[in-house]
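User: Earlier you gave me the apo prediction for this protein. Now I'd like the version with adenosine-5'-diphosphate bound, so I can compare the two side by side. Same sequence as before, with the ligand SMILES added.
Assistant: Got it. Here's the input I'm using:
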Amino acid sequence: MKSAAQPLLEVSGLYTGFQTAEPRRSLLTNIHFHIKQGETVAVIGESGSGKSTMALSIMRLLEPPLCIQAGSVRLEGQELLQLPDKEMKHIRGQRMAVVFQDPLSSFHPMLTLGSQLMECIKDGSRRANYARCLEMLERVGLPNPEKMMKSYPFELSGGMLQRVMIAMGLLNRPKLLIADEPTTALDVTVQAGILSLLKDVQREFGMGLLFISHDLGVVSELADRIVVMRQGEIVECEQAAQLLQCPAHPYTRHLLEMVPILGQPLPEQVRVYG
Ligand SMILES: Nc1ncnc2c1ncn2[C@@H]1O[C@H](COP(=O)(O)OP(=O)(O)O)[C@@H](O)[C@H]1O
Ligand SMILES: [Mg+2]
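And here is the structure of the complex with adenosine-5'-diphosphate:
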């Protein structure tokens, strides 16, 4: 049964590892966290800490030999790990969507962006769906949506393509959007534009957002709560303001020391060389 207090996403006791490894080795160990309706939760941790593996586990997009070994992933109370593939595929398109780091490799190179966007909408007339695509391309700040629909992925810059991918993720107005380092491949100005776009649409659509980054500076503006990952485990999970001011775990403190904060003196090692 749904209730106001029910989290949008609830991950508990999640272990992900190799199908064949004997004894079983896990890349993710006992992951627990939740996202409330409309909340932005950021996941941070250095490269290799398991952030993408976690996102792929939640979406059930892991490729062999990786597999989920144990645990539970619930979306609005519904257990996803037991669902037949077909139902999961439906949920992936409709109720949760993901935006990856490298937009170019996420699109089919030989198909127009329009045909790839249209493919994401399952119901409705062709005409209505086309209008919906145009509207969403416009919403994510792309000029000339009609032309965009006829373009191929290689014709767009990385920043523009990332916007198309966000539009694609939003087409069905999902309850949850997972963004896995969506700005890492982009330069700083484009990055700022994408972040503020995500923030705006997240508010407008009342979506839950799981925002993954290795950069605490990037997430500090966006997140309501922050989950810190290290070597496949969550070491700290706290309200953003609290975590940024009083990090409890030494690893979080270490990550914070790496972030130059405006108006504050730089950390010792940066001042010496900077
Ligand atoms: N398909 C795979 N086969 C073997 N190891 C993998 C595979 N995918 C990820 N890993 C390992 O899992 C760990 C976590 O990777 P990843 O989730 O990509 O980290 P992050 O996204 O935080 O950089 C890394 O040590 C990586 O080498
Ligand atoms: Mg990653």
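For your comparison, keep in mind: The two ends are 56 Å apart (CA to CA).
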